Structures are given as structure tokens and as C-alpha cells.
Amino acid sequence: MTGEDIATQLARERALRQAEKMETVGRLTGAIAQQFAEILTAISASAAVLSRALPPNRDLDSVKETAQRGTELTQKLLGFSRHRTLDLHPLSLSDFVREVLDGERRRFPANIEVQFVADEEGGVIDADAGAVRQILLNLVSNACDAMAKGGTLHVEVRRVRLDAADRSLHAWVEPGPYVSVALSDTGSGMEAKTLARVFEPFFTTKTAGVGTGLGMAMTYGLVKQHRGFLHLYSEVGQGTTAKVYFPVGRELALSPLDAGRDILPGGIETILLVEDDPTMRAAAQGLLEKVGYRVITAVDGAQGLEAFRAHRRGLHLVITDVVMPKVSGFELYEAIRGESRDVRMLFMSGFPAPNFRKTVGRDPAVAFVTKPWAASELLERIRLLLESTQT
Ligand SMILES: Nc1ncnc2c1ncn2[C@@H]1O[C@H](COP(=O)(O)OP(=O)(O)O)[C@@H](O)[C@H]1O
Ligand SMILES: [Mg+2]
Fold first, then answer.
1. CA atoms within 13 A of residue 61's CA, in its CB half-sphere
2. List of domains in the chain
3. Minimal CA–CA distance to 240: which of 190, 304, 308, 300?
4. So what's the pLDDT on residue 353?
5. Does residue 257 surpass a pLDDT of 70?
6. From the alpha carbon of 143, which atom of ligand 1 is closest?
7. What are phi and psi of 347, to 5 degrees?
């Protein structure tokens, strides 16, 4: 086993442990919430009987209100523990996301710019509209909280295939066609130890009264109930991307649009891969090699530039992370463009895509893929870039 294999293996084990922990916490929370829901229903019912029998009474009103608050809390916990009953209907995810964002527009702080992009072909999922709205609102509110000083919220809806190859990054993915919605913010980001706990109910880093710690727990449970997946990518001080994958609606899953898509596109070109995160690097390298590419790796921008100089004759493409120690992806881009106009470059980043055009201008030999990427997305983007002729 190489070091990269071991890194992938460790990441997979970590992910599986995390999934098992969420299962246990979910079962426990669900059982407790169910019991309390019944108790609260009994209290509410008795209070309703009493208030019909008695003259208006403030204490009784307070009993009813408190029981109502308790019921809302148990509903959230049931959402997390997957005991909520979903009402599934075909839903066009891009239309729905646009609608929810429009509805929220007035509530966005003025210093937050909201961007929305969607595939033209759209994608229909089987979903409970109320639950999907809840998922979106939870993610939007976290993004806004993380951008207290303002920033950009970039929302993207795309059709995407997940493959067995995606399991190196996302251990328990089911291969198939999905529609994803990604929300990227330019906020505070999360440290590894926060990321490891975000889905736990009542985990919050916010002051009491602001945070309840239930948003992500609920989101996780609701996504799972749709047989979907939720992936987070975050860098401290840079921002966070939360990406939700919903399986394409059953009736539509076999549409001609998806036929012939189940082969991951590969090639035999040579690619320089510059990425500081060992898990991401191992996953990308493993995938690229599997589909035929020759891969040279570098762990930061400085090493990337050296590798570029050493190999530039045979090099077809540079894939680079954006945020890296020493020399960033954009600095690397500028250094490389100073020496070569035609090598193609693909940026991988978890942060709002349109901002990269500020740095690269109209350079046609450049493309962008959002982290966390799916194998099919990364590989299709690479083919498009390598086959483009405009340079
Ligand atoms: N987009 C984000 N950027 C930074 N931190 C986040 C983001 N989303 C979630 N978090 C972290 O995860 C924690 C849990 O989120 P959540 O379950 O929604 O609870 P709450 O928002 O009430 O704190 C937050 O307190 C925060 O530390
Ligand atoms: Mg929240």
C-alpha cells in the first residue's frame, strides 16, 4: 500500500465511524423525542379541555404555549432522527431553490450578495417540499451567520452522477443520477474539530439564544430520509460549501439523459495535481490514474511551480487547489501564465466560483470545479477543458 492508499483508507474508516455514530445518536434521539412528543400531546390535549371548561386563564395559556414550544422542539429532533413522515412528490429542484431564495430575498442582510446558477435541463427529484425548504433555510441561515461582516452566498443546482469512484471521498455513496444543490459562503469556515461535530444535535459554537445546534442535525436527517447525501467542505477564514445530493426521481432515473453516462470519461494526458489536503489529493490522484491519466502531484503552490517547470514539455493540464500555504492557486496561475499561455488550468475550490474570473479574466484555457466535487463532475470538466480548441 502506498501512503496515498493509506490516507484514503483512513478517511474511509473515519467516515464510516462518523456514520455509525450518527446512527446511534439518531436512534437515541428519536426514541426520546417520540416519548416526549406523546407526553406533550397529552399535556396539550388536557390543556385544551381545561380551557374550554374554564374562564380565560393566563397560567393555562402559558401551559399551552410551553407545550407548543416543546412540540416544535421534538419535531426538529424527529426530523433529525428520521422519524418524520415525508410526503414525496416530483419536485423541480432548480425551480424550487430559486423560489425559496426569492422568498427570502428581503431577509438577507444588505451586505450579503446572493448568486444563483442552475443547469438548464433541470432535475426532478422525489421530495417533500416542506422538508427541502427546511433544509435550504437551515443552510442559508448558517451561511448568513458565518458572514456577519458580509460576503457572497453562491447557490448552484446541478445534475450529477455519483459513482463508486466517489467512495474514496464519500464512503457510503450509492452510484446513480442525482441533482445537487450547493451553497457556498465566504464566511468564517470551520476548524476540523467543529466539522467533526456539526451534525450532532445541540452542537453549536454560537452564543445561547442565537444558536440551538439543531439546524445541521435536522438537515442531516432530512437529507438521509430522501436517500440523499450531504457533504461539507470548509476552510477556516475562507468559507464553507454545503452540498446536498438528492437522487433523481424514480420515474425519471431511466430517462435517455442518463443513458450512456455511466462510464467515467478518462484520457491518457499528463496532469499536474497541486493540492495541500492529503485526503483530497489522494482521492483525486487515485481517480485520475484509474481512468488513464498520468499524474504528477505537488503538495503546495511552490512545489507545484517547480513541478511545472520540470515537466512543462509533456504537460497538458494543471489542476490546482486555490487556498494553499506559501503560494496560493491564483499565485501559481499567475506564475505559470508568465511562462506559458497555453497550458490549461483547472481550479478546485469550495468558494464562490464567479469570483475566480476576477483573477483569471477571460482566459479561455481555465475552468473551475467546486469542492466537494463528484468524480463524474471532475472528469467531465477535465475532458471539456482538454478538448477545447480556443487556445
Ligand atoms: N456555513 C457555516 N460556516 C461556518 N460554520 C458553520 C456553518 N454551518 C454550520 N456551522 C457550524 O456548525 C454549528 C452547528 O450548526 P447548526 O446545527 O445549524 O446549529 P446553530 O446554527 O444553531 O449553531 C454552528 O454553530 C457553526 O459552528
Ligand atoms: Mg444553524
1. 4
2. 3-80 (1.10.287), 89-247 (3.30.565.10), 270-387 (3.40.50.2300)
3. 190
4. 57
5. no
6. 1
7. -90, 140
Burial tier of 222 (Cβ tally within 10 Å: 0-12, 13-18, 19+): buried
> What integer pLDDT is reported at residue 3 of this predicted model?
66
The answer, yes or no, to whether any atom of ligand 1 lies below 6 A from the CB of 217, is yes
Q: Which three cell numbers stand for residue 11?
A: 478517511
Find out whether the beta carbon of 182 lies less than 6 Å from any atom of ligand 1: no
**pTM for this model (two decimals):** 0.81
Q: 362 or 126: which carries more pLDDT confidence?
A: 126
User: Over pLDDT 70: what percentage of the chain?
Assistant: 93
- Is-cis flag, bond preceding 352, omega within 30? no
**Is residue 244's pLDDT more than 70?**
yes
| Whether the CB of 18 sits within 6 Å of ligand 1 | no
Please choose from 198, 222, 223 the residue to mutate so as to test ligand 1's pocket, defined by most ligand atoms within 8 A of CB.
198
Q: Mean pLDDT for the chain?
A: 88
From CA 82, how far away is CA 223, in angstroms rounded? 9
Residues in the chain: 391
Instruction: Summarize the confidence of residues 220-224 as an average pLDDT.
Output: 91
Name the residue with the closest Cα to ligand 1, atom 10: 142
Report CA-CA distances (Å) from 36 to 60, 67, 265: 20, 10, 52
Peptide bond into 265 cis (omega under 30): no
Report pLDDT for 4: 62
Is the shortest distance between the CB of 8 and ligand 1 below 6 Å? no
In this structure, what C-alpha cell is assigned to residue 382?
477535465
